[in-house]
Amino acid sequence: MTEENLNPQHRRIKSYVLRTGRITGSQEHALENYFPLYGVECPAPGQSLELKSLYPQEQPLIVEIGFGMGTSLVSMAQANPHLNYLGIEVHTPGVGNALKLIAQEQLKNIKVACHDAIEIMQALPENSIAGLQLFFPDPWHKARHHKRRIVNAQFMELVTRALVPGGFIHMATDWENYAEHMLEVLNATPNLENTASDGLYIPRPDSRPLTKFEQRGHRLGHGVWDLYFIKK
């Protein structure tokens, strides 16, 4: 149940701010021509996404929230044809770039949504996804903005509802304070189990591609914290 459900009189605090980034001609072309092929529209409130109609093969579905420019997500879909992927991103240049990459590789196991992730998660059927990926979300590092962080109890209720038993949650951040917050929220979520041997964080698994953003952070001496939980 989201904050919006809990009190319909108040607008839900969103975890993102729409930026008016410059969109290239190729990204705009991809949005116009490839979204009808690879895009997903959010259904009306109260209705569920018809996942079986989205993919030619019925296979485990991985959802990634905030895929940026889509490079890592598309490479994962390309490397794992036995899995389906649904990427969610609100910034149109990134969605356009992802669509362009998907079309170039002619991938059939990936779709993208340009929409609020919370509303997409609400539309996912119960026990319908095999994994949730959330890599480097906005940390909202100022204390007065922590309420905007996407990782909270209400969000985790949506995630665990959508996850199949045995499904995973993989999060990563380069802000230690946000990593500690994520760990606290995940530990407090019923029916989740931390896979880290020390009960904290795991080393970056090979399944998560090393992005240019992360490589730059390593050069600057920034740490990165990965969390990997399983639904019991």
From TrEMBL:
CC terms in the record's Gene Ontology section: tRNA methyltransferase complex
InterPro entries named among the record's database cross-references: SAM-dependent_MTases_sf, tRNA_(Gua-N-7)_MeTrfase_Trmb, tRNA_methyltr_TrmB_bact
Binding site for S-adenosyl-L-methionine: E64, E89, D116, D138
Residues annotated as transmembrane: none
Keyword Methyltransferase belongs to the record: yes
Residues the record lists as binding substrate: K142, D174, T211, K212, F213, E214
Keyword terms of this UniProt record: Methyltransferase, S-adenosyl-L-methionine, Transferase, tRNA processing
GO molecular function term, any single one: tRNA (guanine(46)-N7)-methyltransferase activity
Pfam family, one: Methyltransf_4
EC number assigned by the record: 2.1.1.33
Matching SUPFAM superfamilies: S-adenosyl-L-methionine-dependent methyltransferases
Catalytic reaction annotation: guanosine(46) in tRNA + S-adenosyl-L-methionine = N(7)-methylguanosine(46) in tRNA + S-adenosyl-L-homocysteine
Enzyme class: transferase
Metabolic or biological pathway, per its Swiss-Prot or TrEMBL entry: tRNA modification; N(7)-methylguanine-tRNA biosynthesis
PROSITE patterns, alphabetized: SAM_MT_TRMB
Known function: Catalyzes the formation of N(7)-methylguanine at position 46 (m7G46) in tRNA.
Family: Belongs to the class I-like SAM-binding methyltransferase superfamily. TrmB family.
Protein name: tRNA (guanine-N(7)-)-methyltransferase
Organism per entry: Psittacicella melopsittaci
Protein's gene: trmB
